[in-house]
Amino acid sequence: MKTDKPLLEIIGVDKHFGNQHVLKNCTLSVKQGETVVLIGPSGSGKSTLLRCVNLLESIEGGSIFFRQSDITQSNVEPHRLRQDIGMVFQNYELFSHLTAAENIMLAPMTVLGINRAEAEAQALELLSKVRIPDKADSFPDELSGGQQQRVAIARALAMKPKLMLFDEPTSALDPEMIREVVDVMADLSAEGMTSIVVTHEMGFARRAANHIVFMENGEIIEHATRDEFFGGSVSQRAQRFLDQILH
Ligand SMILES: Nc1ncnc2c1ncn2[C@@H]1O[C@H](COP(=O)(O)OP(=O)(O)OP(=O)(O)O)[C@@H](O)[C@H]1O
Ligand SMILES: [Mg+2]
């Protein structure tokens, strides 16, 4: 269900790595149920911005509100926050000695304390949702890259996150596997999962994004609705970038 209050508000965030100013006064709001696609050249700060939202990086200035509370305050427990904010990276890093189902069951059992039968039932449901219902007993090295990435998505969903962060989830995949991961992310968006997706898959953006945000040199330089973006109402700079990734 969509409400008007932002689920996530990034306000004036600043960050350096050494002398390098990697996030410059970044401001971005994401409402419940929205999908935001974040694009921009390599090194522009996309991953760093997502990592700040998940408290994998600290910020120097500004604030980040999630569900109306400032998560950059020192009393916020990162592990607790990460139960509500799932993250999927380019490299899925599943546990190789656990089956697909066991990878998905692990955190609900150890962190949330739910019992094995319940965790297993949920894992099977999630494997159906990511369209690999028959792979529960397969080990990661028996799965394709696209299947492994979908297990990683299911693993994140098992914690019932309120927000999902995807950092180039398809960029390590062979072209024929990109589509299956994109389809799963588009399903999630259609079901109302709030998400920020760093991706250059413009087909996904066209299908699923409510907003498209363009970063360059640590700055958010463009924030457009999907219609504005694909209707050509974008800056020349963003358009040049788009031309590069589309050709
Ligand atoms: N841990 C770190 N220590 C020092 N510098 C870093 C660190 N992580 C990122 N950077 C630098 O911060 C800048 C932003 O990096 P970031 O990874 O956020 O970019 P990106 O937009 O995700 O790029 P890409 O498209 O290549 O993934 C880059 O110049 C990068 O070299
Ligand atoms: Mg990155």
From TrEMBL:
It comes from Rouxiella badensis. SUPFAM superfamilies: P-loop containing nucleoside triphosphate hydrolases. Belongs to the ABC transporter superfamily. The keyword Translocase does not apply. Pfam families: ABC_tran. InterPro entries: AAA+_ATPase, ABC_ATPase_HisP-typ, ABC_transporter-like_ATP-bd, ABC_transporter-like_CS, MetN_ABC_transporter-like, P-loop_NTPase. It comes from the Bacteria. It is a peripheral membrane protein. This is Glutamine ABC transporter ATP-binding protein. GO terms for cellular component: plasma membrane. One of its GO terms (molecular function) is ATP binding. Keywords: Amino-acid transport, ATP-binding, Cell membrane, Membrane, Nucleotide-binding, Transport. The lineage of its organism: Bacteria, Pseudomonadati, Pseudomonadota, Gammaproteobacteria, Enterobacterales. It is found in: Cell inner membrane. Residues 8-242 form the ABC transporter domain.
